[in-house]
């Protein structure tokens, strides 16, 4: 097993925070990260917000304003490109809605340092989590998880988690190939296809602080079907 | 199986073909439509033209393919052309979407790089002044 090491044991780490209309929570999240004094840089990707997100974020952190809403995949990929351009060793994706407590970042880094993983996922379902979701969602996540297990022989308990850390190898891959819609589970399939090592670490997540999720009701079923479809497509892609 | 276009059919189709091809040709000359799309779109006029000019050939083709009503062949051919056109459109749209995403990301990254550079220069300026 490869154990990751960095010069002076201090990798350059970037926290990527994608957000869309998060004026109510973005400043709080950035202040929380700054107060923790972890020594990590942050970049906010404002995905074409129509509220004051850019204004709020740019006073506390570098903020990339996208002129059109690209969706979560496009926003994350922008952050990955930014981290490559600025020569970061690792980047961590943290949602702008406050669901991912910054104090859990250390868990990702510690597990990463002791593993051979290229992509480390913060799992809501490995530990006794405060996180609660609807039964429909949990069923959907289970089905996606089983599909990954069946197609790639890999056990991922939380394939839809947006709380993840990636190294240079994963960054290079995702800077050129990252799904626009439902990127978390589909990017896992891409990672497995390209031979990346993916690990999980239990983390505690908070319920969404402000706003509502975009995946509710019938969209949950549609999300699950599309993701499962894409997982199979990527899997058979090697034979076509 | 006999198929002979009536004078009304010939007049109606000729009228349609002339106007349709004229509009297409004008748009192709103006570069609104590319040449390959012009060929695909013009088949909507060219395929019925066969029905007027060579009804014997149409009957022969219908017999060959086992189609009992020769006009089914016409609609079938038009469907095939339509789907080829849709397929091409889909590929073009996806390529355009990828380009737009790439451009949007690049604009954002460049703007941020420019802001960082400007801020850096301002800091240096203030330091040299003090």
Describe this structure in words.
The complex is a heterodimer of chains A (240) and B (130). Chain A is α/β, with parallel strands linked by helices and 240 residues long. Chain A has one domain (11-132, 157-207): Spore Coat Polysaccharide Biosynthesis Protein SpsA, Chain A, CATH 3.90.550. Chain A contains eight helices and seven strands, in the order βαβαβαβαβαβααβα. Chain B has one domain. Chain B has four helices and no strands. Chain B has helices at residues 7-29, 35-53, 55-65, 70-129. In chain B, helix 1 runs antiparallel to helix 2. Classes of the chains: A alpha/beta (240), B mainly alpha (130).
Note the main sheet of chain B. Answer: none
Backbone shape of chain A: globular
Low-pLDDT parts of chain A are none
CATH architecture of chain A: Alpha-Beta Complex
- Oligomerization category of the chains in this entry: heterodimer
Structural class of chain B: mainly alpha
Distance between the termini of chain B: 98 Å
Could you say how many structural domains of chain A there are in total? 1
Strand content of chain B: under 5%
- Based on secondary structure, the structural category of chain A is alpha/beta
Q: What's the structural domain tally of chain B? A: 1
Compute the number of strand runs of chain A: 7
Figure out the total of helices of chain B.
Answer: 4
Query: Which residues of chain B form runs of ≥5 with pLDDT under 50?
Result: none
Let me know the average pLDDT of chain B. 89
**CATH homology-level superfamily of chain A:** Spore Coat Polysaccharide Biosynthesis Protein SpsA, Chain A
Taking the sheet with the most strands of chain A, its summary is: 7 strands, mixed
Radius of gyration of chain A: 17 Å
* Tally of DSSP β-strands of chain B: 0
Order of helices and strands of chain B: HHHH
